[in-house]
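Margin note: ligand = 2-acetamido-2-deoxy-beta-D-glucopyranose.
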Amino acid sequence: MNFKAAYMVLIWLIQTNSISAENLLYFEQNDYVVKYHHIHVDFSDPGFVEFFELKNVKPNRTYKAFSARFHLLTDIEDNKNFKTNVKAFRLRTNSVEHLLFQFNIDVCQCLRKNTFGMGQVLSAGNITTCPIKKGYYYAKNFIMDDRRMPPHVPGGNYKILITLMKDKITLTITSLYIDVIYKLKH
Ligand SMILES: *[C@@H]1O[C@H](CO)[C@@H](O)[C@H](O)[C@H]1NC(C)=O
Ligand SMILES: *[C@@H]1O[C@H](CO)[C@@H](O)[C@H](O)[C@H]1NC(C)=O
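Resulting structure:
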């Protein structure tokens, strides 16, 4: 079975509730590293955030991180209404995008359970808890932990489209360009 087929089975198992989406919050892998190229806010609902800045920063030669600043006009609640939809498109040399997999996760659960190593956001600035009350926030020089990414993802170039939604209404869309690079086996 190839990787795409394996992921289709995984997604089908989640959609049919054969395995709990909770399990998805505990990714662990140590076979590849992620190289982050570019992050871009494609859309933000002006009724939700007045201002949303997300960028790559490179405090020194070996360290690549992200910084974020935003002014929330609405609380991000800790419930199932606030979802993040994550779509992984594999990029080919002929620039055709190919949707490899997608899933939805709760925003607060993702931060709390450190899914994708996102938990670091909570110690990088003044977003310290979830739910997040409306207000001005920043998170500086945070990294995502490669070891908390999904296992068995095929190596290559990806565009990750991250859509924050409340009750199916799109609040923000962010795209992140990455390379998945497998470590050499000894
Ligand atoms: C690079 O910067 C990060 C974050 O400030 C720091 O943790 C790390 O030790 C630095 N590495 C070097 C080689 O200076
Ligand atoms: C977060 O920090 C910024 C910059 O210091 C400050 O303006 C803002 O009020 C802080 N937000 C909260 C909710 O404490």
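The chain has one domain: 3-182.
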